[in-house]
Amino acid sequence: MSEDIFEIGGFKLESRLFTGTGKYADDSIISDVCEASASQVITVALRRVDLESGTGNVMDYIPKYMKLLPNTSGARSADEAIRIARLARAMGCGDWIKIEVISDNKYLLPDGYETAKATEILANEGFVVLPYINADLYVARSLVDAGAAAVMPLGAPIGTNRGLKTREMVRILIEEIDLPIIVDAGIGNPSEACEAMEMGADACLVNTAIATAGNPVLMARAFGRAVRAGREAYLAGAGAMCRHAKASSPLTGFLSED
Amino acid sequence: MTVVLNGKNVDISEGMTLLGLLESRGISSETVVVELNREILSADAFVSTILGDGDLLEVLRFVGGG
After folding, report:
1. What is the spatial distance between Cα A129 and Cα A233, in angstroms, rounded to a whole number?
2. 3-state SS, residue A52
């Protein structure tokens, strides 16, 4: 197959699977997950240092070749997201930022209006902004105008492993939005990531499904392969569907023919 | 003298630098980002920043997240 490079924010990626660092029973497995998945982009969150208990540093387990995608989790407004993004950039690990603005604690659904406000300000400050959104055409359009580098519609609520429940809405975004579409959140199985890629999504972000699998490293490899398979199927172009059977073998030369 | 470190009051000695405070708490200055009174400080400034009474400090770092 000819080279299929995914370029985002001036960065060329061979893998279309983004991974995360949340929810691992043991963070030391993260480096093996990265290698097995072939992913090149990984998310992290920014939090207060715990002054009472010294805990390990997740950065120790992220291979140096990975592109870091800090998120703004914990932000409930555009202003809070902007504050977190600036702090994340001050860590000196690049200018990519995944905008998450969430004030709904039950379903963790993103606030599209506040997300667009934060995106516009941060894009103007030179950030490569990847906003996490509902699979909503109007929100996505507002993010195009705001200068986002991609849009990241959810497949299902964060951490649910429920799959690509928003497939029809994601399909509309793929058709209508002239930015990379990265399906984020809710993907539970490799087959669902594969389906998103077959539909024409540009990438998938998978954290919980890998981190909470019985064997995260094996699941990471499965997701890496599924995303690749789905992408290749999309590039190949699926054959036409029809309602009636069409024999795959010749309908001539049967033994019983006179 | 008291500063507010990550939301908690902390007593410090007069003339203490930010770097001194981080070291006294066992925090490696290379793994954190610091906001002093809502302004982000560059790591170069930790050693020369002398803390004042009532300063609001936020010391953050990357953790696992999705």
Report:
1. 28
2. coil
Domains of chain A listed by start with CATH number? 6-236 (3.20.20.70)
Which among B25, B43, B64 has the least Cβ separation from residue A58?
B64
Q: Which CATH superfamily is domain B2-60 in?
A: Beta-grasp domain (3.10.20.30)
Write down the H helix ranges in chain A. Answer: 30-37, 78-90, 112-124, 137-146, 167-176, 190-199, 208-211, 216-236
Q: How many other C-beta atoms are found inside a 10 Å radius of the C-beta of residue A144?
A: 15
Inter-chain CB proximity B8 and A20 less than 8 Å = no
Residue A182 corresponds to which tokens in the numbers above? 């990265």
Residue of B30, B56, B63 to mutate, testing the A interface (most A Cβ within 10 Å of its Cβ): B63
ipTM for this model: 0.94
Q: Print pLDDT tens along chain A (258 aa).
A: 568 999 998 999 999 999 999 999 999 999 999 999 999 999 999 999 988 876 679 999 999 999 999 999 999 999 999 999 999 999 988 999 999 999 888 899 999 999 999 999 999 999 999 999 999 999 999 999 999 999 999 999 999 999 999 999 999 999 999 999 999 999 999 999 999 999 999 999 999 999 999 999 999 999 999 999 999 999 999 999 999 999 999 988 898 877
